[in-house]
Each structure stands twice: as C-alpha cells, then as structure tokens.
Amino acid sequence: MFHCSSGSVCYRINLMNWLFPKTNTPSDSGVRVTLVGIVINVLLLAAKLIAGFLTGSVALVADGIHSGSDMATDLVVLGAIRLGVRKPDASHPYGHGRYETLAGGLLAVTLIVVGLFIAWKAGRALYAHQHSFPGLAVLVVATCSILTKEWIYRKTARVARRVRSTALQANAWHHRSDALSSVAVLLGGVVGLFGWGLADQVAGLLVGLMVVSSGGKTLFNVLHELTEGALSPTQLHTINAAIKQVDQVHGWHQLRTRRVGREIFLDLHVLVDPDLTLLEGHRISMQVEEVLQAACKKPVNVMVHIEPDTPELAAHQKDC
Questions:
Q1: Distance CA 15, CA 31 (A)
Q2: Could you tell me the pTM of the whole model?
Q3: Average pLDDT, 10 consecutive residues per value, the chain (320 residues)
Q4: Domain 7-226 CATH (choose: 1.10.10.10, 3.50.50.60, 1.20.1510.10, 1.10.600.10)
C-alpha cells in the first residue's frame, strides 16, 4: 500500500495502474498487446536510425521514421482502449465505444498518408533513376524488423478479432505496413548486391500502394459505423436464425442494428400470442435477448418491443 506524499507521486501510481490493469478483461488484452508493440517499435526505431545513418541507407532511415509513426499510433490506441471501455454515464448513455472507432479512423488516415508518402518517395526515386546499394547490416536490421513486426501484427490482429476492436485492427495493419516497408528495404538490399540499384524503389512503390489499400478499407469500416451502418448480411442471418429458436415468437419486424465500438445494438418488434399475460410477454422478450447475446458472442444491447399478433396489426404493418 503506497502513501502518496505529493500529488505527482499519486499521479504516477495511478498512471501505472491505468496502463497495467490488474484485472483480466478484453480491454486488458488490448492494452497488453499494444504495450508490447510500443516496446518493439522503440527498439526498431533506434536500430533502423543507427544502421541507416552509419551505412548511408536512406531507405532504412525512412523505414525507421515509419516505426516511429507506429509508436505514436500505439499511444493513440492505448488511450482509446482505456477511454472506450468506460461504463455508460449521463453524458454517454450508449457507452464510450466510439473513442476506439475514432482512433481506428485516425490510424486509417495515417496508413493512407504513410502509404502515399512511401509510394511518392519510391516513385520519385525511380523516375530519377536513383540507385541504392545497402550493405549487410541493413539486411540484418530489415530482416529483424520483418519478423518482429509480422509477429506483433498477427498477435494484435488476433486480439482485435476476439474483442471486436476497430482501433486494434487498424493498429495491426499499421504493424504490417511497417513489415512490408522493411520487405522493400530487404529486397532492395538483396537485389542491390547483384548490381541492380532500382529494386528498392520498385518494391517501395508496390508496398506504398498496398498500405494505402489497407488504410482505405479500414477507413470505410469506420465511416460505416459512424454513419450508423447496419451489421453485415452474415451477421443479420445469424441474428434472424437465433430469433427463430424462441418457440412463442410468431414473427418479427423493424429489426435495426448498429455497432458502437465493440458493442452491437439491436432493436426489433416481436409478434406474440395476443392472449399472453404481460409477465409471459416479458419472459419471451428476455428469451429473445438471451439467444441474441449467445449468437453474437460479444456484448449485445437488445431492445425488444412486444406486439400482439393480430390481423389488424398485420394489415397495418403491410400498409406501412
């Protein structure tokens, strides 16, 4: 038990507890994998800049700057995760999940900018016929970068899929973009050993376009969520199949879906026997909520409106 004698000491202790939570929740796994990514990016930043300046490899120095941008986005993701998992309050009754969504959008834009920069730089060097022949040290550093960044990409992407985090998924692709840019450095170095100095520029141009593509896909998903886009057809099929499991549900309509960060929000109208009691209708609505939560395998907020299955109501719905 620490007794703080000053406000600054208390702040440092609280900050450590914030970054390294003691519980084991999905958000904690996202924090841990992001912290591992920060450590890797710091080491790669130092190795690439030192080797790049010592060998005169402009490509490796640029790749080091890319690792530095990865480290900056790791910090953004870290803050977004901790903000996004806060419980709903009066100012945010639907929770704070959009913090992660916004972070994912920021990372997507960063990916696009980085990809365009890589492609522009490589294309400009290719047009100017600038040859580069990096040495063996550059090849070693580039190989280490590829292996470590691909490993942290796979680890981050696995966590992102499990917790359904847009920010983590975008950050995973940022790791892979760094690995791909290191591939360009490696290929340029290997082919340069055989006397062709334009290999680095050609590979860099292709890698830049790949990074732009991945950033564009991520940005599309972010905008789809921010504009209240519905779930995918596959997810909707799963939801419809789950509702059919409730025996006393005669039908349903006005199913609306949206995503807020890691959570799914659903609301629908369920038709039941008009002779049921209020208590029985409530029990059916609870069953619908339970089957939907089990089917989606992630946090789901369900709003069920019970309606009597009568000819008059059916005709009204048909007219609407």
A1: 13
A2: 0.66
A3: 46 46 57 87 88 73 74 76 76 78 82 82 78 74 90 91 79 83 78 71 74 82 85 88 88 87 86 90 90 80 88 59
A4: 1.20.1510.10
